[in-house]
């Protein structure tokens, strides 16, 4: 049995219907510029891969990935002025996640994970979760997280061994995402095209309109030098093993 | 160079930015029960595959697929009461397609195809196209179609050679979808699990609430017996070659 | 007692309140160009007349007609660029039908027919019906149809005796609508102004923006020559008699 | 030439297109209980009749009537708890009027009257007018009124000669509406069923939920005794002649 | 204990939680031009002061004031073309009031007063109240009023003793608001800057777009000459004493 | 001249209109439980006070405070299950901020600060800013910040001298908010009622439904012991002096 077994889009409905007591995982990413060396699908691809690993660990089911997300911001994604960044409005993200969760709850699932790969999605995803929870009287337990928050300090330390950690907000197309892509889909990473000129200084405020120059013109916020598949593996495994514990606690699941 | 070259999610932003004068294709499908022998991702997978073939033919770019669609109806998809059918509200589909198209037009693309794999999506996708067209003063030409309408009568005849054509509305998990999946992803088709008891009689009206029994309990609307990869190839090639002509006429594209 | 007895707008509230166990019919049409020889109210007028005939046959009640509908499309109505076509947004149609149905259900009616006279309305009307059905737990049975789908093949054959049937999509301001208007309101039909130059070729796709020339400049999609009150009568009676059977089956009504 | 000439729904599109420099009038009413002696279509019927008279006076065009309106309130319509009162949500009224006005302005009309027959509609209709005006840069002049506000004091005095005027808020199914219906459609008025027990005392506040007893159980707010077709004629003519002056001032129209 | 005790924003949550059986009052005003002599916060300030007086009389709780309101109209506020008038869209007002009321009802409060200080707010506030009432099955009693409607005729007579009453619609920045501000916050009233040139003639219709000149360029609709703190006190006390009676009747409250 | 001079609600419209070239500041807070010793208005009161100090420093204008905000979350405010926490829906916050900003830009202001006092508001406020910026073509420069992000590391160090800094997320009703309230409105702080039992452990995920126990039953997330007016003054002055620099850079303002 391969990992694809856990994908809802590859199951027939009776196969899916037999799994309502198992966790179901909804990956959400974005389509967003990721500097010169990473493809635009990074957030969605990573969310999907982590979800599949988590499904394998939990005997869960992965729903089809939401490949578009909330607007990329200068301080955490840098995308608004780069071609290829597709920014959904907040209301659209709320409604989309709302409808998908409503339907899966109506199908009888009560153990739901939303696995987010795009920082800016979070408040709108949580708003959707809150609305669905109110409407359904809380009959499903919904856990929302991502691949960075569950990492324990010692995993973060190992991941950045020999490197500087610039803070999560700047980890866009930098060490963690590049390493995860080297781990999962190395053929899509172009280390030879990597550009790094300066670290973006995080600001204490936002200012609109966004202007050319708010983000370096190549599209990166921090240095990706030193990324490796091994570091990517550490993140993936570190995240999944913590998420398994979280699910055990919240859902009472075990393997 | 492989077909994956045409996928936006696998491009860096500069690669994408260099292609604004080429067509861009947005596949939209659904996640919906497809009887006993087909997986739930059929509509999205077919829309994506056809889009990739079309992109290869046109030197176009395929955007990430919208994997969830409008509500499955008894007479054309049969899904509302089957687990795994994820029905988005009409407003959600409109907003989602609206935002994606707005962003791609803001990026400078003017030759856009929306390739639909789920019958019920169409009016809501077109509403989104109409709204975006009004807001942007019509600066992009947007073509919306699917894999069935462009087929010429002689292709349809060849596809159904030796078989009965039950009408497009009932072609859900039947000859055409099964054949397309045998052509594109045979490992996901379970011909041994195929069930067929009776042809659903299309009704001259809709009635709500939908009730168990409106659709046979296995989930099919018509017989898939006789499906083959060869018939699938005929459909795929028949659709793509017509779409190339349509794009030539509407966009002035050629290869 | 005349047919007007069945009109809700002509009843006092106690008369109406006494009829909650009878079917109630909501006609919906549009205001849309209908070529040179038919007035713009055709879709609404026909929906209303058919509804009144059906009410007479069922001892039902006809609600006031929704005279504006969803956007007229080039391939099925041809209206977007002609003065006088009033196109409601999809969300507006959904909300309007939703609110009217909600209220009539709150009044205790459980046998509801929505009679549509404008092809493009259907998906948005059905979305409204679906939403209301979910909100009210399905306590009313709602049937949605129009005057063309219920016609039996032999009625269609008789209606088009000696004529070509161009397909329903092109039946805009053509044989069926002209004949129905000659049957119901001949004083509004100007046969002497009828224009026909070419049959519109139905396309396998939609393209936006709509352009002058997508529809012949007089506004017709197919030929109306040969229309007659008698053909109109056949359609009206053919539709009503089928609708009576449908209501009998769905509502358990009889006369 | 009869008054029906002024109805948009009875015109062909070329007839309508020839009138873009003339005023266009949109009647809006409601479907609402009107006590024991008046039918539920009163607000819509009166708005439509006044609009037709005004169109005749101005050589204007009457659009199809919006027959459903905003929620009936205890102090001005008394409808929420009576069967047959169909209450649209505020957002629905705003969107509906917005879309209709947007389309008529897009058709080139710049002299627009909204003629309201249902007190509660007004703020939501005006919100729609404000939104459309902002969106279109104010290129159309839109006048909104009703059949009561334009009446001069001496007309009001004549209308109520020998009677008490209870204030406009209570004029629901009372002297003015009954008289107007006797003037325009006497066959729909049942003077023999008229009930009057007590005058409703207008309150200085609203209280929700509305309760049985907030309005007398027969549905009236004030006494209709003394209503006559002649009083109705005075109102209709008094309103139309003032509206003609208003249009002359705002549109520069004359006859 | 001072009047500030009644302010929710000055209470801790346990203090507030102990008062669920007492009335809770939500003041709503606007930010709107008030001619030359009054500040823009008048509507909000007066609503808040009256609410505090009412809370003191009822042992109720005053929620934080909604300081922005629905669009100022020429005939009742004169604001749309004056800097500083902040006009919320109708939908925004409905949603804002809806959410605040929903939350307070979820907290267990069942005796709610909405105290309005801005004429134009009323229909949108009431729409919100209606929606919340439907959603919560009417478990809270919600009274909506303002500071002018509850005044008895003899109070109005005393307030305008020696002056002309121009009608409530024109009472914008005129006798009543100026007097109330002289009563509550005299330091914010600049009697020396008062301008009065002509009484605005109320029109029998509205016309859009609003034009410079629809309202006198200084911003007033009627004369404020003769305003006094004493007249303000009469209004405040007259309103509060009536509101106490209304609450006694609707809530069964007493002191 | 007192600080009240900078409040828009205390200005007449001509005073306000004379200041369009100066910065305008919109404070937004919330109404939310703040443990046992702080009142529920803390977020709004602090946002307002900081805004007034900033206005004084910049010769700016403070708009009326938005006193209700987005939903309080367990990990950053702890409010959803405590009486008195008033949670607006995301869409409501977006629309409210959108409308207020639209209007102030329409009035000619181009230097706008949104000063936020409630952590959870931020993404929804920024969504509103983004929408307004798109609609107005970016003609105003809008800076959004709060009172914590602009603090320099050495100010934070001084503020927490002798204390542990638990991280900003837990700084709810703890050292910083308590100190700011002791600085601005000591009469509203009840140090004697302060409760602290355990530090809440920030979680790496969110889980819905929120449950009693997710937050300690008294309502605090971290210890407030050691709070002082002096620490509050350091925060206020530290924030304002940085904001002055930010405004100088973004607006070109100086004093």
TrEMBL record, chains A, B, C, D, E, F:
The keyword Hydrolase applies. One of its GO terms (molecular function) is creatininase activity. Its cofactor is Zn(2+). GO terms for biological process: creatine biosynthetic process; creatinine catabolic process; riboflavin biosynthetic process. Keywords: Hydrolase, Metal-binding, Zinc. InterPro entries: Creatininase (IPR031034), Creatininase-like_sf (IPR024087), Creatininase/forma_Hydrolase (IPR003785). Belongs to the creatininase superfamily. This is Creatininase. It comes from Pseudoscardovia radai.
């Amino acid at each position: 049995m391969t990992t694809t077994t856990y994908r809802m889009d590859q199951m027939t409905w009776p196969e899916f219907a037999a799994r309502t007591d198992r966790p179901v995982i909804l990956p959400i990413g974005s389509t967003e510029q990721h500097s010169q060396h990473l493809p635009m699908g990074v957030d969605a691809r990573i969310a999907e891969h982590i979800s599949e690993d988590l499904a394998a660990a939990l005997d869960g089911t992965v729903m089809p990935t939401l490949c578009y997300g909330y607007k990329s911001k200068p301080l955490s994604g840098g995308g608004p002025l780069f071609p290829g960044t597709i920014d959904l409005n907040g209301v659209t993200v709320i409604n989309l996640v709302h409808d998908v969760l409503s339907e899966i709850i109506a199908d009888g699932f009560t153990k739901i994970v939303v696995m987010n790969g795009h920082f800016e999605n979070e408040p709108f995803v949580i708003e959707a979760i809150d609305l669905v929870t109110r409407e359904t009287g809380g009959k499903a337990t919904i856990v929302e997280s991502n691949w960075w928050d569950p990492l324990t300090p010692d995993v973060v330390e190992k991941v950045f061994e020999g490197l500087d950690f610039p803070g999560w907000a700047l980890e866009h197309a930098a060490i963690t995402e590049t390493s995860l892509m080297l781990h999962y889909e190395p053929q899509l990473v172009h280390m030879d095209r990597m550009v790094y000129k300066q670290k973006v200084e995080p600001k204490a405020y936002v200012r609109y309109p966004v202007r050319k120059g708010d983000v370096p013109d190549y599209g990166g916020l921090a240095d990706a030098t030193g990324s490796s598949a091994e570091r990517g593996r550490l993140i993936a495994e570190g995240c999944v093993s913590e998420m398994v514990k979280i699910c055990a606690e919240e859902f009472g699941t075990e393997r």
